[in-house]
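Anyone up for a design puzzle?
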């Protein structure tokens, strides 16, 4: 059985390890999240949806097999919006519709956030994910994304 929850509490060490494992599937080589960063940044600035598979129990706790994050409302002169980031389903659980369920639940969170618009970005190489976003009514904006990383 698959269950969903918005993580709103201090994660167990197992939860944090499973979340970091999923993030590695999404972005290999990324820096693992610390408990402090998860609590003080991720959970304070948005909602983290976790998907658990109760068929995969570890220490009486269902394994996290998918995640998705939506930001709190972001103010902008053209109106507030929310941003979806880091949607990932474990490789062992793909093809079961979990990604779609995660995105739909994050869309539903918009009413609590007070926004009418949600944005996300996705690497063009993620063909299945991009097709899903279009299927769910999102439109490709054709914008360029630029980034600069500053050293500490």
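Challenge accepted. My sequence:
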């Amino acid at each position: 059985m698959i269950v969903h929850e918005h993580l709103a509490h201090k994660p167990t060490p197992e939860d944090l390890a499973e979340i970091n494992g999923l993030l590695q599937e999404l972005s290999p080589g990324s820096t693992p999240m610390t408990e402090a960063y998860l609590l003080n940044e991720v959970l304070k600035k948005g909602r983290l949806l976790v998907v658990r598979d109760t068929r995969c129990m570890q220490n009486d706790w269902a394994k996290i097999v998918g995640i998705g994050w939506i930001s709190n409302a972001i103010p902008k002169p053209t109106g507030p919006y929310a941003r979806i980031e880091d949607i990932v389903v474990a490789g062992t659980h793909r093809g079961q519709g979990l990604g779609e369920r995660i995105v739909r639940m994050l869309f539903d969170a918009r009413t609590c956030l007070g926004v009418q618009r949600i944005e996300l970005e996705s690497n063009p190489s993620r063909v299945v994910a991009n097709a899903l976003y279009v299927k769910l009514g999102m439109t490709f904006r054709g914008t360029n994304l630029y980034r600069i990383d500053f050293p500490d």
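A detail worth pointing out: The longest strand covers residues 46-58.
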